[in-house]
Design brief:
The chain is α+β, with helices and mostly antiparallel strands. The chain contains six helices and ten strands; from the N terminus they run ββαβββαβααβαβββα. It has an eight-stranded mixed β-sheet with strand order 2-10-9-5-6-7-3-4, covered by helices on one side.
């Protein structure tokens, strides 16, 4: 097992496995969500993060557990609608906000740790099935150092590299755990419908065929 150094985004299994990358401070089972709330979508602007210090990376399990206990007390379940957020494209440093999400498509957020073996396996399985994922927005999100994220797809999911509907995003300001959800295991998957409402989420490993079904149904 691997203690999480918090980071954000990637999907893989059909049932939670004990081998998933685990945050021991918080344990939760997968769920399907049907209740909805409306949230305003704020607009972001282009911003280059080159030259900025990445002070928001959680450097130890103890730090993560402290952050998790604080945030999870406020939000035990994932938010039912995509909230305003600002992430940054790893390759360009350009900001990417909720206003930049392409309309009329389902949106998948995969919280991941670049060093997590299960996250790598899931990314690889998704890459092998890219032909089934062309019509969804797929975002791998992490709070880890962008230098560790930059080669993630090239190393483990090369079929996803430079695909127009796939991005690796750096969560510099910890927006995901502050606004979306604090997962107990990586990879953690969040499936939002075309209207930005949460359809389902799960944490840890899942069979790739079930993942594809949940992504595309």
């Amino acid at each position: 097992m691997k203690n999480i150094k918090i980071v954000v985004y990637v999907t893989l299994g059909g049932t939670l496995l004990l081998g998933a990358c685990t945050n021991n401070a918080n344990t939760k089972a997968p769920a399907t969500v049907n209740n909805h709330e409306d949230h305003d979508h704020s607009h972001g602007h282009d911003h280059d993060h080159e030259g900025h210090e990445h002070n928001h990376v959680v450097e130890s399990t103890a730090d993560l557990q402290k952050q998790t206990s604080t945030t999870d007390s406020k939000k035990a379940e994932p938010i039912p609608n995509i909230p305003p957020f600002t992430f940054y494209k790893v390759k360009s440093g350009i900001s990417f906000t909720n206003a930049d999400l392409p309309k009329g498509k389902k949106t998948i957020f995969v919280l991941f740790d670049p060093g997590c073996h299960h996250c790598r396996e899931e990314a690889n399985a998704l890459a092998k099935n890219y032909h089934k994922l062309k019509d969804i927005n797929l975002y791998f999100v992490s709070m880890n150092d962008p230098a560790l994220m930059a080669s993630f797809l090239e190393s483990f999911a090369k079929e996803l590299v430079d695909k127009p509907n796939v991005q690796v995003l750096y969560d510099r300001n910890q927006d995901f755990i502050q606004k979306f959800h604090v997962p107990s295991q990586f990879p953690a998957n969040y499936v939002y419908d075309v209207n930005g409402k949460l359809q389902s989420y799960w944490e840890g490993d899942k069979n790739i065929n079930e993942i594809i079904t949940l992504y595309t149904k």
